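This follows on from our talk about sequence and fold. I would like you to pick a protein and set down its sequence and fold. Go ahead and set the record down below:
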Amino acid sequence: MSEHLVTAYGEELAQLGAEIARLGGLVEAQIADAVDSMTRRDVAQAAAVVAADERIDALQADVEHLTLRLIALRQPVAADLRHAMSAMKISMQLERCGDLAKNIAKRGLILAKGEPVTPFNRSIDRMGKLVVDRLKTVLDAYAAQDVERAVQVWSRDEEVDEHYNAIFRELLTYMMGDPRTITPCTHLLFVAKNLERIGDHATNIAEIVHYEFTGEILAGIRPKFDTLQHG
């Protein structure tokens, strides 16, 4: 391979990493804005989150196109092939996180029409900050090729589950005490579940990062907090 081709190939691989950084930054902002709009009952902000989902879909499609083009033209092997495939897999995980952020914003739009259920704002906000931090940490690990940091995210998966289960119990108690709150509390339960799923996607990305830079599947059973399991 000529020096020119090697340079172009390296630039294409770097472009994939840059696109993942752009996509990841947008998704992190979407999740934070979705939770913020819900707790502050900000209809305009929630609507903006819903509208911005199309941009996430477009960026994910760009990553997929770049990956497939690189594989077709360069026929990468070994570490380079893992790098290309990891970028596409991570973009798919991020696209799903974007969908979940959009769903949270939609729940926020519904909740804004009714009476506020303020006792849960702090718990939801805390859980939202936790999953955004997990996602940011694992994406930073990907950019820095820091396998150890990615494994740390993977090993703390139960923290998000603990938050979800605590909110579930609080919501259930609240609904039993006042049946009039059943509808808004059900929406809040879906919000918490969506955040828990974002945490799972962050853990999936950690596994992808580990495989990309080691060539090995992350061994062991993913830590989970299984006291309660809800669909």
About this structure: Residues 3-214 form a domain with the Methane Monooxygenase Hydroxylase; Chain G, domain 1 fold (CATH 1.20.58.220).
